[in-house]
């Protein structure tokens, strides 16, 4: 996540300029500014006045809010995410990481990922099980973010490791019974809730939570 408005502005200005293929000198000429001013903006050292900000918005054809509101995204803005398509790749990535030479990448519109679009370390996987096939069937693509168990929220869909197997389930916390539940949402009648007492949660390794999924039709 971007920490300050000035940091967000500098990052998005630099990306817009580079994507449009113009130099700082050329942009400075368009705005009637010095190249040094553009450089200071992109370094995050200075923030433009309202008139200059409006000039940037007009030149790049974006809303002014795009420069200082993180939740304002462009339709054309995409995020490049590594995609693991085999069980062996998925396991290796979850455990130890994997060489960039062994994976392909997908590009998703940033708007698909909501507030997570700017997070580092997002990964995409092809689903190889039917534990959540009410939402996404076997063969669908999911995007996950690494999380710690303590950061989970009731209702998150998680990737976890338990009893020598990986699974994707809905995470639930039942305070009345002092248990965590990992619940399938599946057409498979053989799948059941995994119930873990609070004091035994250390036996479960929560690896990531699902932040987006693409459904095959």
Automatic annotation (TrEMBL):
Membrane-spanning parts: none
Record carries keyword Transcription regulation: yes
UniProt source species: Sporosarcina siberiensis
Residue span, HTH cro/C1-type domain: 13-67
Organism superkingdom: Bacteria
UniProt keyword terms in alphabetical order: DNA-binding, Transcription, Transcription regulation
Record protein name field: XRE family transcriptional regulator
Pfam families: HTH_3, Peptidase_S24
Taxon lineage: Bacteria, Bacillati, Bacillota, Bacilli, Bacillales
């Amino acid at each position: 996540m971007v920490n300050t408005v000035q940091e967000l502005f500098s990052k998005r200005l630099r990306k817009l300029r580079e994507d449009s293929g113009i130099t700082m000198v050329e942009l400075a000429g368009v705005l009637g500014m010095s190249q040094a001013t553009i450089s200071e903006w992109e370094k995050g050292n200075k923030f433009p006045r309202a008139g200059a900000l409006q000039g940037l918005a007009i030149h790049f054809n974006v809303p002014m809010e795009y420069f200082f509101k993180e939740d304002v995204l462009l339709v054309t803005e995409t995020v490049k995410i590594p995609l693991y398509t085999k069980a062996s790749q998925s396991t290796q990535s979850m455990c130890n990481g994997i060489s960039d030479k062994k994976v392909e990448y997908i590009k998703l519109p940033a708007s698909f990922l909501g507030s997570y679009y700017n997070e580092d370390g997002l990964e995409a996987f092809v689903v190889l099980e039917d534990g959540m096939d009410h939402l996404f069937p076997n063969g669908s693509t999911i995007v996950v973010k690494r999380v710690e168990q303590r950061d989970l929220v009731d209702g998150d869909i998680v990737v976890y490791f338990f009893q020598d197997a990986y699974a994707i389930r809905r995470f639930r916390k039942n305070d009345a019974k002092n248990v965590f539940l990992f619940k399938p949402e599946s057409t498979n009648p053989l799948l059941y809730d995994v119930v873990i007492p609070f004091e035994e949660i250390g036996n479960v390794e929560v690896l990531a939570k699902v932040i987006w999924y693409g459904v095959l039709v």
